[in-house]
Amino acid sequence: MTVKPLMGIWKIMMKRFKFKRASQLALVLTSMAMLASCGSAPTSTAPEAATEPTTAAATPADQQELKDVRVQLSFLKQSLDAPLIIAINKGYFAEEGLNVAYERGFGNSDTIGKLGTGKFDFAFSDMYNTMDFNEKNPNDQIIAVAITQNRAPFSVISLKESGISKPEDLAGKKMGAPTGDGPRNLFPLFAEQVGIDPNSVEWTTMEPKLREAFLLQGQVDAITGFSTSALPSLLKAGKTMDDINVFYYSDNGLNFYGNAILAKSAFVKENPDVVKAFVRAYFRGFQDMLKDPSAALDAVIASDDSKLMDREAEKVRLEIALQEIFITPEVEKDGLGGLNDERMTKTIEQAVQGFGLTSTPALGDIYSGEFLPPAEELTLPPASDRKPLM
């Protein structure tokens, strides 16, 4: 190994391992030099922070320094985050010149609020809570640069033993959800669409982690929330899908989009190339997830340092997402990442009513599609190329 490449690697390692002591770096570098003298190639070493490892072959370490990018998830890391994990593991972000590190989120409102402060460069959350944030924080506007969930997992969930078999049966029932829950805030619109009086419902408030427990214990008749969060918990508790009713908002007049890739408008204006690079690499990972969801699921499980993730629960979550949220007729027709202007305009108007906003933002104020890669990179792989989730 010559001195010049060795020094190039030293610079990259200083970038990636800035939290390590210099003595540790020196030890690694010395080991690399010893390996080189024996004709062996150095192995890739992963940071101990939230940044995921990239493959050495895919990392353009000797061509450029990587730009650090901070990302917050919408909640705990889940199988739904597979595109991000894959893009990190396979070096897709590194190929775009990005060193991506992520942290767990604590719910959509919290995620959006932290993005607004500038703590993160990108975040995964929904555009409708973003509208609420933007109205309250005109100097810290946030915009969506790509749609990751074509259909929102907003839903009302009940156990069949409660006697609720259709949305109209919710009238006069006791419902539960945390304060700030998006579907709870939008429930009056849902009630209007299905023809019941929203004031006839009695609400019980609980912590998010107790929502399914309240339903299982019979303390509430139904809950609002994300199907991708509630259903795995109910199934893990011993229920089957035959025991559960799921009423999707999208099936009842509220055809909302789900999570999107969000960024502060100021960051987008100052870093358009970074935004394009991030979106491009993310959807490469998304395509890989669609082609082999089992491998994608395994990648997420392997990335869990706590080793507490339940593969079966995460499999259920990913299966629901693939069937109900990621792959829809609109995505099959138009591809990943974008949206339908007419549909989005209608849901903006519904969100304004549901969140009690004082003004209606223009579509361009909440979403921009200019950072999406070419259409051919967003077209779904043929059905024959999509392996089943095992």
**In terms of per-residue confidence, which ranges show pLDDT below 50 for 5 or more consecutive residues?**
1-62
Briefly note the structural class of the backbone.
Answer: alpha/beta
Average pLDDT, all residues: 87
Percent of residues in beta strands = 5-15%
**Cα separation of the termini:** 44 Å
CATH architecture grouping of the largest domain: 3-Layer(aba) Sandwich
Q: How many helices? A: 17
The first-level CATH class name of the largest domain: Alpha Beta
Query: What about the largest sheet?
Result: 5 strands, mixed
Helix content: 40-55%
| CATH overall fold name of the largest domain | D-Maltodextrin-Binding Protein, domain 2
**Count of spatially separate domains:** 3
User: Strand sequence of the main sheet, in spatial order?
Assistant: 2-1-3-10-4
Radius of gyration: 23 Å
Q: What overall geometry do the principal axes of the alpha carbons give?
A: globular
CATH superfamily of the largest domain: Periplasmic binding protein-like II
Write down the secondary-structure element order: HHEHHEHEHEEEHHEHEHEEHHHHHHH
The total beta strand count reads 10
Quaternary structure of the protein = single chain
Describe the protein's architecture and organization:
The protein is an alpha/beta fold. It folds into three domains: 3-37; 58-151 and 257-385, Periplasmic binding protein-like II (D-Maltodextrin-Binding Protein, domain 2); 159-251, 3-Layer(aba) Sandwich (D-Maltodextrin-Binding Protein, domain 2), CATH 3.40.190. The protein is 43% helix and 13% strand. The chain has helices spanning 3-16, 22-37, 82-89, 92-95, 108-117, 127-136, 182-185, 187-194, 211-216, 227-236, 265-270, 272-291, 293-302, 311-326, 329-334, 341-355, 363-366; strands at 67-72, 98-103, 122-126, 142-147, 154-159, 174-176, 202-204, 222-226, 244-248, 259-264. The chain has a five-stranded mixed β-sheet with strand order 2-1-3-10-4, with helices on both faces. A five-stranded mixed β-sheet has the order 7-6-8-5-9. Residues 1-62 have low confidence and may be disordered.
